[in-house]
Amino acid sequence: MSPQADDVDRIVDAWRRERPDLDVAPLHVLSRISRLARRLDLDRAQAFAQHQLEGWEFDVLSALRRSGAPYELSPGQLIRQTLVTSGTMTNRVDRLERRGLVERSPSPTDRRGVIVRLTPTGRDTVDAAMADLLTRERALLSDLSGEDRDHLAATLRDLLAPFESESAPAQG
Questions:
Q1: 70, part of any domain
Q2: Where does residue 61 rank: exposed (0-12), middle (13-18), buried (19+ CB within 10 A)?
Q3: Cβ-contact 71, 124 below 8 angstroms
Q4: What is the CATH number of the domain that holds 135?
Q5: If residue 116 lies in a helix (H) or strand (E), which one and from where to where?
Q6: Pair 99, 52: CB distance under 8 Å
């Protein structure tokens, strides 16, 4: 049984009709990845909104949570984890601090530095958001067998590898 045609199939067919001189086969894979990424971003935004979080807030809080007890990082480490500029991170930490989700303290190793620490409220918030996100994402993958999920993850890892370095941070 052949799969039902989707929007990408129609787009590819239209390009083949209009530009038969081009090999549009990559669109079958990459357009689906692009469309899926947009839908996942929207779904994640809904999951985070249920916990009164924006995506960027979840990124910062989850970087702190993944760091392990006592759940603290320097602003430089947070910048590397979340791939934003120093000015952006300062603004983000300010906003999270006002919400009581993080706190700043002087660095014990650098007189000019600070440490950003997850508060108990921040930890509860990110833990609840992460649990909800995983429930949603498990449901999205529920029609795939374990073997299919493993194969898909490996294939996507191979596809993503050229864009990432070993020092690139994990997101999510």
A1: yes
A2: buried
A3: no
A4: 1.10.10.10
A5: strand 114-118
A6: no
167 in any annotated domain: no
What's phi and psi for 169, nearest 5 deg? -75, 155
Fill in the DSSP letter of residue 161. G
Instruction: Choose one of 28, 49, 70: the last residue of a domain.
Output: 49
Q: pTM of the predicted model, to two decimals?
A: 0.81
Q: Are residues 112 and 148 in the same domain?
A: yes
- pLDDT tens, position by position, for the chain (172 residues)? 457 889 999 999 999 999 999 999 999 999 999 999 999 999 999 999 999 999 999 999 999 999 999 999 999 999 999 989 999 999 999 999 999 999 999 988 888 889 999 999 999 999 999 999 999 999 999 999 999 999 999 999 999 899 886 545 555 5
* Residue 103 located in a structural domain: yes
| Dihedral sign, Cα of residue 46, residue 64, residue 75, residue 101 | positive
Sign of CA dihedral 38, 43, 47, 50: positive
Q: Please tell me whether residues 82 and 5 are part of one structural domain.
A: no
Instruction: Please state the domain count of the chain.
Output: 2
Segment (H or E) for 79: helix 75-82
Range of the structural domain that residue 96 is part of: 52-162
